[in-house]
Amino acid sequence: MEKFRESMLALITETSTYLPPDVRVAINAAKQNEDAGTRSALSLATIAENIVMAEENVSPICQDTGMPTFEIKTPVGANQIEMKKAILEAVVEATKTGKLRPNSVDSLTGENSGNNLGAGTPVIHFEQWEKDYAEVKLILKGGGCENKNIQYSLPAELEGLGKAGRDLDGIRKCILHAVYQAQGQGCSAGFIGVGIGGDRTSGYALAKHQLFRRVDDVNPNEDLAKLEAYIMENANKLGIGTMGFGGNTTLLGCKIGVENRLPASFFVSVAYNCWAFRRQGVQVDVNTGEIIKYVYKDEVVKMDQAAPVAATEDEEPREIVLQAPISEEQIRSLKVGDVVIINGEMHTGRDALHKYLMDHDCPVDLNGGVIYHCGPVMLKDREGEWHVKAAGPTTSIREEPYQGDIIKKFGIRAVIGKGGMGAKTLKALGEHGAVYLNAIGGAAQYYARCMEKVEGVDFMEFGIPEAMWHLRVKGFAAIVTMDSHGNSLHADVEKTSKERLADFAEPVFK
Ligand SMILES: O=C(O)C[C@H](O)C(=O)O
Ligand code: SF4
Question: Which parts of the sequence belong to the Fe-S hydro-lyase tartrate dehydratase beta-type catalytic domain (predicted)?
Fold first, then answer.
């Protein structure tokens, strides 16, 4: 089992750090399909660079290494108990070496187990098959895109689309709606797995299982093949674009599966996966524990790293360098679309910290400061110094109930995250003089590179992702998507995509 444990560690490392070829092809195609100089084209260039950096650094593509979910097939007679033990050991080891972020949190106490083990984590499903070797598939699906999963119970009334009945056309509407409701918050452009039927539990399992299909396969069910092709063509007309910035590519893959249902139920379950679609698999010799071959690694696909073609001069975004702490005057001069380069100190803060700061003081002075919605992967060296191994943004909307109050209470001038925030925050940005900056979700290596030094940390009791890390950064680039003058790119994209969604209300599959 020692060799099997090593093979599992190799699988986890590969999954977290190397994006499979079929996913690369889809992202390269999106990059080529995006208009030069647009925010989406620039974001895709950053994403491509990040994918290459992760491969070269053998470090996580995205800091959120998700809920490790294993689907395993074993020959009859293989010892599944021993295999499970070896997998758990490999998960612990991968966490120690920074290939996985400690992601297993006690739901009642909030305590992070620190090693990715805990009640229900990781997820491991075994099944037997007739072959004489084992197959272990792994998906690392992050929390932000998991939050955008959605389940419909038909018949239903869907905003923009009207009535969705218990038929193929009703299913079509659900899937389009699922893409619309994700906006940029699951780090679009995304991949979706759809499960038709089952019950609430098995429907979601079927949806997630679809994500193990290759992006370029063709559904053996003719009706579903047609539906998949239809969705790929039309979901991209919604114009949500990379990170919700608007653009030509919103969806990179759509895979639909079907199972029988109960007479009374008709579920359509959708599993949304971000562009950082980390799934891999290995065939393993059960006698030696050695990897025979990788399942999703049959060709070498290089990322398209051609520099994005510059926009014409009048479209060129302004680039403004800001040194933290930032003055109100500087912030008021910014507008949606500006690119901001930040130097100086920033502080990470996400769910636990925002909740805490509502009725406590902050251990550091945040006046003029920058808050980064980020839960990094951190490793401590032998001298006891912390290093940032992966540090992309997290979905900001979760902080919507707190953010406006916290901006005002502590004098914060810039909030960095992804996916945008709501009306309450937008109002506070205007009242206080602050901006929301959208960083590229999943670009964890790209941002880790600008983190020059870890100045300190507070609230380690919240666990590594939720702690407040004080970071000195140089050249941290982000886009102003909500300014202090009441403008929000997110509100605009949501509005136009909702209007476009209504174009799909007429029946297509009769
Ligand atoms: O937890 C994180 O770091 C990010 C999360 O996956 C998200 O998309 O919000
Ligand atoms: S931050 Fe974005 S890329 Fe990373 S796991 Fe979350 S949704 Fe995926």
Answer: 306-492
